[in-house]
Every structure is written in structure tokens, then in C-alpha cells.
């Protein structure tokens, strides 16, 4: 008996609304994005900041950002491309919502990678020490930009988790039309 994502004949495959191989790649990209963001946000960064002073912790985490931001941006782009390749029918609510979340993530990740992160780095260089510099215009600007970055990171995390939760519903769109 054929499964929804494994049609038994070429004719059945042509009638499906989902392309199984592309859907697996889409699910993998979304899972790596959501999981990587969750681990970095809820485990790695807090442990580093609890274990070291602000300056050293900031330096350690700061060395990860040039890898982290392209990782999340790249996976959100791969997820969008593989979603478009995997799905033929996008009129159902789960597919429409997934597409909206993917586009939103790509926009947010692009903004963070190409505008916000470089701005934060420029301001951070103006603060000699986060442990010894109590208050300065650069420190206040860093705090504002860092706060925005944290909010957008949470948006991207929730976005990715939402996409993971939508995977079964989008995958069910693979059943043959009645």
C-alpha cells in the first residue's frame, strides 16, 4: 500500500502535491535552523555569560557570530528554496503560513546579517570594556542595538519552531487530490 509521501507509480507521483525528496531537505533545513538557534540561544550563550566576565564572554560569543548569522541566514534561504521545490499546492493554510514564516525569516535574517550585526560591531568597538564602562553614549547605543538583536533572534527562533510544528501538516498536503 503506497504512503502519502511515496506514490507507487509515476502517474501517482505526478498527481502528488509534494515532492518527497525536496520535502526531506526542507524538513532538514528547518530542523537544523530551529535546533541550532535554540541551542545557541538557550544553552551556549547563557552558559558562556554565566561562566566568564562580560568582556571575555562577549569576546567568545562575538567570535561565534560571524558563523552563526550566516548559518541561520543560509538555512532560512535553503528552507525557502526547498519548500518551493517540495510543494506544488500552496493554497492550504499550513503551506501559506509556512511560506509567510519563511519569507519573514529571510527578511529578518538578512537585516540582522547585513545591517544590524555590522552596526553592533561598529558600536562595540567604541566601548573599551563592558565591565568597567558604566555609562556612555556608545554603551547605550550598544544596549539598544543588542536588545533589538535579541528580540529578532527570538522571532527567528519562534519562526523556526513554528515551521517545525507545521511540518506534519505541510507533509499531509502530499496526499493525492480526491
Classify the secondary structure makeup into a structural class. mainly alpha
Mean pLDDT: 90
- Number of alpha- plus pi-helical segments: 5
Q: What would you call the shape? A: elongated
Concise synopsis of the structure shown:
By secondary structure, the protein is an all-alpha fold. The chain has 5 helices and no strands.
Strand and helix map with partners:
Layout: H1 10-15, H2 20-51, H3 54-86, H4 93-124, H5 137-172
Helix pairs in contact: 2-3, 2-5, 3-4, 4-5
Written overview of the protein:
The structure is a single chain. The chain has 178 residues and is mainly alpha-helical. It has one domain. Helices cover 78% and strands 0% of the residues. α2 packs antiparallel against α3. The chain starts with 9 loop residues before the first helix and ends in a 6-residue tail after the last helix.
Question: What keyword list fits this structure?
Answer:
single chain; 178 residues; mainly alpha; 5 helices
